[in-house]
Amino acid sequence: MTAMSExxxxxxxxxxxxxxxxxxxxxxxxxxxxxxxxxxxxKFWFSYHHFGPYSEDLTSAIEVARFVDGSVTExxxxxxxxxxxxxxxxYRLADPDQPEPAALGFLPWADAKAAVARMKRETSVVIELAxxxxxxxEQENVAEWEAELKVRKPSKADDDRIGRALSxxxxxxxxx
Amino acid sequence: MADRTQRIRDPIHGLIIFDKDSPTxxxxxxxxxxSEFQRLRRIKQLGVSxxxxxxxxxxxxxHSIGVYHNARRLMDVIEREEEDAFDPKRASxxxxxxxLHDLGHGPFSxxxxxxxxxxxxxxxxxxxxxxxxxxxxxIESPDGDIRRILDAIDSSLxxxxxxxxxxxxxxxxxxxxxxxxFDADRxxxxxxxxxxxxxxxGTIDSDWLIDNLAIDHIPARQDxxxxxxxxxxxxxxxxxxxxxxxxxxxxxxxxxxxTQVYLHKATRGFEQAVSALIVRIGELSEEPERLGLDREHxxxxxxxxxGETLALYRDxxxxxxxxxxxxxxxxxxxxxxxxxxxLWNRKPLPVLDITAQIGPEAADRVPxxxxxxxxxxxxxxxxxxKDEATYNLYTLAKGEGPKEHKKVRIRASNGCPKEIVAxxxxxxxxxxxxxxxxxxxxxxxxxxKSSAERAMRGR
Lengths: 176, 459
Fold this sequence. Notes:
The complex is a heterodimer of chains A (176) and B (459). Chain A is built from 7 helices and 7 strands, in the order H-E-H-E-E-H-E-E-E-E-H-H-H-H. Chain A has 176 residues and is an alpha+beta fold. In chain B, strand 7 and strand 8 (417-419) form a beta hairpin.
């Protein structure tokens, strides 16, 4: 089994762990970032982009899963009554009737499912903030992370959303 | 010494005046004289594009001064719209941020960052500091000339300017001057890059565009599962109806610059060569003599593991890199020698253009790319270079989606802002809204390219 197909299988298993659906590229990226922090072991390399930690490796792996493996589909769904620019990508399994694997990478299946389910309860802005908070603290080692978060995301980082982001990190056992 | 009015002649803007009666202009003039700013004179705006467009030799310094000039013009629009509510202090912060916005760029920015990422990955590190972070650090550094000058005006000024630079999204309408669909930066580089490369495609009527700018509030949204949990509204620039056609021309001009200049095949190939050379220096940073460089060379120092300090970064510019290329042409390392020779004497890399050969549809392109990636294996990044550029009408970025503040909106006859492509008689094809991916592979020999092509076709 080549490294590429392991990664492709991981992408499929990830969507499966999300009960067959993940809505939004931002959510997809941040869910994977947080799962990697929990030890999933997908070896996706992240760097900071406009919406927080982002992995081109993941984007490529999703493309392979879609167009080479055929195991994952991406559909664009308009939202918010906006024009063509306001679309969300919806990721689903091409074949939903697959047996559940024992693990998601190095994460036991039940743990992975619970983590993803918890993440999916939040809006993409809250999960973006959670991933960014974790990134600022752990990767950029910013002591005053809350101030930096408010500088980087002035319209998103209000106290209510920061509170929900911290609650998410605590529930995932990723809080400092 | 009393302040004097200063002037700079510029091929795009004509005469740029720094008025002695404007404290912001005088501050800007002093900042231009700093070593941090003058470093931008030694960094070309378009990196290696001059190997394809010989006229593209303009510096980031010229561009930054042009951005300041544009920022003043856009600020006049805000002053007109805000009337008594206009905040001159906030305006001044934004104008200084406009001048200094590119301060932290490295030489051959995109190629250099690509190389640093590759090195970080191979060293098991996550992320790299991008140029925006260096810009903020250069502004706030207590050892720097810029900080000293800003502190003399107001002790919070450096922090306020740096915060603006560090923000992912604009927070008020003043910020829109430097971050919007029609900001001071975009307006200068499109005109400047177009003029200096000699590209004739697309038209930019900047006077008419600025004259037809207004401010409006846009509902900000993000991916949601069927809800419209908006992020409130975002004040930004929109165009009045009379400016719509000029705005379409502006967007098309930008689109043309992407396809004809920024994403030019040969240019991207040379960028890959620069990137590979930087990676090689990083790999041999503990044995630089193999590359004909000494241990104190700024590139060697910066590219060592844990070498990425602000002090060393400040020493990096195009001249340092080209000077290293000159040495590398004659060094003992064959790989470095080959790459350096290609840059020095302009020898383009053999290229396999997947999008051109296979087509733009992902269903065709991705399997072909997958076959080549499998064929390339460990040679990927060493002698086979994958280059993927994603773009559409609004954005050059791959990734997670368009930034709301970068979309172009027109104030329709009912007074509401509407996306420019939503008008039924828009000349902009809706297809341009879709992400286009240009995938090319570059090689160091025709033989390797031919083998890869066979692999791509499944032979």
